[in-house]
Amino acid sequence: MEDLKLQVYEANMDLPKYGLVTFTWGNVSAIDRKSGYFVIKPSGVEYEKLHPEDMVVVDLEGNIVEGSLNPSSDTPTHLELYKAFPNIWAVVHTHSSWATSWAQAGRGIPCYGTTHADYMYGEIPCLRCLNEEEINGAYEKNTGILIADYYKDKDYMAVPACLCKNHGPFAWGKNAREAVHHSVVLEEVAKMAARCEQINPHVKPAPRELLDKHYLRKHGANAYYGQKPGRYISPILS
Ligand SMILES: O=C(CO)[C@@H](O)[C@H](O)COP(=O)(O)O
């Protein structure tokens, strides 16, 4: 687990490096699928005071397996995503300001150009706000269940990120580095899309041919994790 702790530490340190976090508003985790243990940033620890040995190891029941600090408050959300998405190995949550602005506005981010299309096969969805019972219950767990439920009939790697209304963005990937990369892409396309709509309020999403051209040439319809041909269900095709 020491290697995974170092990977997760480095990925967490990339959050301030890429301007995705203010104070401690973000966390990265990654899972060892053999043991079912995942490593996550400790709660409330400033990045500049963070060390690899501070990372917390948690099992898929939510028990702390290793570590003296409390795991991120978002641990239950990460946990639900690892249970629901067997082909992911890392999760990132931030409050990056452009993506969080779309989340607060309750809007998904349309694909307006090839920057978006290269990584996300269509609109980045904004999921509904949790209801009163979900908010007053196990909020973070319910956030993970909401995301898992949205993607249950979709290819969660075709659009490896989403927005949770009145909260913020979550992203995932095949390792911590890729999950952070998706978070950076998300924040950049959120910024571009907001400005695009300011410049031209009547702007339309990019044509489907452009989306297909850019996404599929990079990822292919079944590029991810050996998915069976014909099984491919993208968020916008289902
Ligand atoms: O979404 C939230 C709070 O609204 C959290 O993501 C915090 O922004 C980070 O919490 P820790 O990881 O430090 O517990």
UniProtKB/TrEMBL annotation:
It is an enzyme of class 5 (isomerase). The keyword Metal-binding applies. Its cofactor is Zn(2+). One of its GO terms (molecular function) is L-ribulose-phosphate 4-epimerase activity. The keyword Metal-binding applies. It catalyses: L-ribulose 5-phosphate = D-xylulose 5-phosphate. It comes from the Bacteria. Residues 6-194 form the Class II aldolase/adducin N-terminal domain. Its EC number is 5.1.3.4. Keywords: Isomerase, Metal-binding, Zinc. Pfam families: Aldolase_II (PF00596). Belongs to the aldolase class II family. AraD/FucA subfamily. PANTHER family: FUCULOSE PHOSPHATE ALDOLASE, L-RIBULOSE-5-PHOSPHATE 4-EPIMERASE SGBE. This is L-ribulose-5-phosphate 4-epimerase. It comes from Lacrimispora xylanolytica. The lineage of its organism: Bacteria, Bacillati, Bacillota, Clostridia, Lachnospirales.
